[in-house]
């Protein structure tokens, strides 16, 4: 899908379901966050399934992971305006577990959820009407 203005070269992908893909943000380099499996550092990217951290040396190093809310808060000044609300999300659940940014394909929205030792705890929070609202399974 291309812009109808002759001077504009902007294009967007068309998703499998026929919808036009939302505009993507430019990658945000975070040299302070080293990768665990390589000597690269993480870059915050905006993909079809929400934001994620990827190695800056991709495709050489294919390390990716979900960002922690505390990491987004730490680098809040570098985040694009449309992602800043994620830095204001709860950084821990009521039990003190760190929260990660996740993406719901069902509702097509980003939310935060907590994990303990790599397993989901069932706690999550959604950004509704300008504020974070907790949801417990």
TrEMBL record:
DNA-binding listed as a keyword: yes
Gene Ontology terms, MF aspect: DNA binding; DNA topoisomerase type I (single strand cut, ATP-independent) activity
Pfam families named among the record's database cross-references: Zn_Ribbon_Topo
InterPro entries: TopoI_Znr_bac (IPR013263)
Residue intervals of the DNA topoisomerase I zinc ribbon-like bacterial-type domain: 30-65, 96-134
DNA-binding recorded as keyword: yes
Keywords noted in UniProt: DNA-binding, Isomerase, Topoisomerase
GO BP field: DNA topological change
Protein known as: Omega-protein
Organism: Klebsiella pneumoniae subsp. ozaenae
Gene name of this polypeptide: topA_5
């Amino acid at each position: 899908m291309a812009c109808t203005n002759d001077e504009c070269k902007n294009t967007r992908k068309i998703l499998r379901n026929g919808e036009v893909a939302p505009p993507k943000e430019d990658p945000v380099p975070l040299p302070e966050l080293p990768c665990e499996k390589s000597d690269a550092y993480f870059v915050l990217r905006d993909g079809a399934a929400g934001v994620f951290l990827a190695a800056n040396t991709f495709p050489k190093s294919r390390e990716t992971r979900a960002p922690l809310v505390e990491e987004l808060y730490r680098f809040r000044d570098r985040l694009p305006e449309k992602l800043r609300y994620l830095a204001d999300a709860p950084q821990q659940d009521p039990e003190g577990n760190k929260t990660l940014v996740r993406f719901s394909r069902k509702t097509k929205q980003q939310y935060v959820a907590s994990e303990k030792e790599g397993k989901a705890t069932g706690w999550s929070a959604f950004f509704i009407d300008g504020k974070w609202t907790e949801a417990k399974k």
